[in-house]
Design brief:
The chain contains 10 helices and 9 strands. By secondary structure, the chain is an alpha/beta fold. The strands form 2 sheets. A 5-stranded parallel beta sheet has the order 7-6-5-8-9, covered by helices on one side. A 4-stranded parallel beta sheet has the order 2-1-3-4, with helices on both faces. The radius of gyration is 19 Å and the shape is globular. The chain binds phosphoric acid mono(formamide)ester.
Length: 304
């Protein structure tokens, strides 16, 4: 495996191995501090990011490697009209591995075809976000002790929310997974995500608009932001943006061991008062993301 563009490219045993390695890195960081000495990671971010770009960069530094790149399309030659293919052919001359975020779905795939070094999809439009999913799976495994036999509620913008698309694709391969998709009618999970997982027999998908009704059944609640930047019409965004706002009062009927997750950034969909709830896991996801990206960089660079 040269690249990671879509979570489906990883086998279940590879995902399990990445989780195991990330846990080991977390417990024994010194063991890994020289693993990528002499290697360079390029972060090519054509779209804004805080967590993904900085966690990739922190990951490479903690592996002893170095980092170069850009954090906005307008500070690269993309602003002069350079293609993604020419950009990554160029950066392949400078770096050993590339993490790329792009607003256009499929751009990291096109990049992987042109690059001579591994490409990691760090989020492409409303499509996929495989490394966020690796962080999410690691968090679910740590919080729940398992990746099977879970009822997972995904709430918010399931249409444009790429982290949900990758999460559903990854979790559907584990046994006895029940997804409850909670969204306004217009922001439902796209058909392409459902058809991609249809061959995994052991999952169920239910759809509802009512978070309060299903909340007591959930083992995991995965909240998402309504993705303003993907809307064609601002009026639609304004109408839908506050469809769900999780507050401590709304959590009174939830399970005592519910894991409340969010890929972040959040806007209004989780009240800051929920942050003090021991069930809130979203900042643990942030930390797990760094260790997971360290494990992934080592895997793609074939570091022992
Ligand atoms: N979760 C996530 O992708 O966050 P950023 O947009 O800050 O990278």
């Amino acid at each position: 495996m040269k690249d990671l563009i879509d979570i489906s490219e990883l086998t279940t045993s590879e995902i399990d191995q990445l989780i195991e390695t990330s846990c080991d890195i977390m417990q024994n960081p010194a063991k890994y501090s020289e693993k990528c000495r002499g290697k360079k990671l390029a972060t090519l971010f054509f779209e804004p990011s805080t967590r993904t770009r900085l966690s990739f960069e922190a990951a490479m530094y903690e592996l002893g490697g170095a980092v170069l790149g850009f954090s906005a399309a307008d500070s690269s030659s993309a602003a002069k009209g350079e293609s993604v293919s020419d950009t990554v052919k160029t950066v392949s001359c400078y770096a050993d591995i590339i993490a790329m975020r792009h607003p256009k779905e499929g751009a990291p795939r096109a990049a992987a075809m042109a690059a001579s070094v591994p490409i990691i999809n760090a989020g492409d439009g409303g499509h996929n976000h495989p490394t966020q999913t690796l962080a999410d799976l690691c968090t679910i495994k740590k919080e729940k002790g398992r990746l099977d036999a879970l009822t997972i509620g995904c709430c918010g913008d399931l249409k444009f929310g790429r982290t949900v698309h990758s999460l559903v694709e990854a979790m559907s391969r584990y046994e006895n997974i029940r997804f409850i998709m909670i969204s306004p009618e217009e922001l439902r999970l796209p058909e392409f995500v459902k058809s991609n997982i249809a061959h995994h027999a052991s999952h169920e998908i239910e759809e509802t608009e009512d978070l309060q009704q299903v909340l007591p059944e959930l083992d995991v609640l995965y909240m998402t932001r309504v993705q303003k930047e993907r809307f064609f019409n601002e009026a639609d965004y304004i109408r839908l943006k506050d469809s769900y706002i999780l507050t401590p009062a709304k959590l009174t009927n939830a399970k005592a061991d519910l894991a409340i997750m969010h890929p972040l950034p959040r806007v209004n969909e989780i009240s800051v008062a929920v942050d003090n709830d021991p069930r809130a896991c979203y900042f643990k996801q942030v930390l797990n993301g760094k260790f997971m990206r360290m494990a992934l960089i080592m895997k793609l660079l074939e570091v022992e």
